[in-house]
Amino acid sequence: QVQLVESGGGLVQPGGSLRLSCAASGRIFSVNAMGWYRQVPGKERELVAVISRGGSTNYADSVKGRCTISRDNAQNTVYLQMDSLKPEDTAVYYCNFRLPSGQYWGQGTQVTVSS
Q: CA nearest 75: which of 36, 22, 32, 33?
């Protein structure tokens, strides 16, 4: 089994920063893409950012220039640095790992941007 554990969410004021982390454990031999998604009640889960095994990145237009995704392959960990946060960034954030055996999701971490 593969488990993903997220951390780093919380309450932050507009303009503030947060750094999310997601560490994987279990039978992992290689990880293809790692990504972050977010979801608000009543809406579909949407991609925030994704990073390939080689380090190529892709961001949602809504977070370009404000978020940076990175990964540590040795630690099977993915990070999301979020700066200049806006109230519309409020959501539950989920990490996603794509392995040869399938894709796996974290349990979600709440990010709330409010004054």
A: 22
